[in-house]
Amino acid sequence: MIARIAALLTSLAVLGLVPVPAVAAQHERAVLAGGCFWGMEAVFESLRGVTNVVSGFSGGNAMTAHYEIVSSGMTGHAESVEITFDPAQISYAQLLAVYFTVAHDPTELNRQGPDDGTQYRSSIFYTSDAQKRAAAETIASLTAAHTFSSPIVTTVVPFVAFYPAEAYHQHFAAHNPDYPYIVYNDIPKLEQLRKKFPQLVKPNSVAVNLTRS
Fold first, then answer.
1. For a designed S-S bond to 207, which of 46, 61, 77, 188 qualifies (C-beta 3.0 to 4.6 A apart)?
2. 162 strand-pairing partners
3. Mean pLDDT score of the chain
4. pLDDT digits (tens, 9 = 90+) for 60-97
5. Using one digit for the tens of pLDDT, what is the confidence trace for 96-138?
């Protein structure tokens, strides 16, 4: 009987009559923004326990969730990554540690490196009260420790929706390792990831394949 019910639900899902869960029950989702999503994606998809990373947009609406429109800086969107992870292998707190100390500079307001505009802002889109608390605690801890010489400007806001970017943006660093932007802006992040968090890096990941550390 259980098998028949499962088969029925699968058939209905294929027909679009019941929703299909975006994330498996044993996995969780994190949505983070910190500059160009190419580098953010490369960093997080290199971590143990992370099963999928998608580049996209969060903070605006579906009608404007297109790269050329978001690039105007007028949509409310931030270039973001949606991270699916197994909390039994990597915690949300560990993801935040990588986010704040490797993936981007949380002291840059509405910009990141060579990229300028609100679409490149530093922002955490929390999906639960636990994520909200973890973000606040991490920011408080880093501030108390004077980790950065300037104040952290990262916003912590409730998650509403995530929209995947165009296909050519997905896994961009892995597919375009010699692209100048990747060489000068993102490979250094991957090198820092391997130095600061070697225990979290997957073997044969983009961080390993694109660096000599």
1. 46
2. 58
3. 91
4. 999 999 999 999 999 999 999 999 999 999 999 999 99
5. 999 999 999 999 999 999 999 999 999 999 999 999 999 999 9
3-state DSSP helix/strand/coil percent for the chain, to nearest 5? 40, 20, 40
Give domain 32-209's CATH architecture: 2-Layer Sandwich (3.30)
With contact defined as beta carbons under 8 Å apart, do 163 and 67 qualify? no
Instruction: Find out whether 120 and 79 touch, Cβ atoms under 8 Å.
Output: yes
- The answer to whether the pTM exceeds 0.85 is yes
Q: What is the DSSP letter of 56?
A: E
User: What pLDDT does 10 receive?
Assistant: 40
Exposure string (b/e) for 80-96, b if CB count within 10 Å is 16 or more? bbbbbbeeeebebebbb
CA distances to 60, 135, 150, 188 from 97, rounded to whole Å, are 26, 10, 17, 17
CA nearest neighbour of 148 among 99, 196, 107, 189: 107
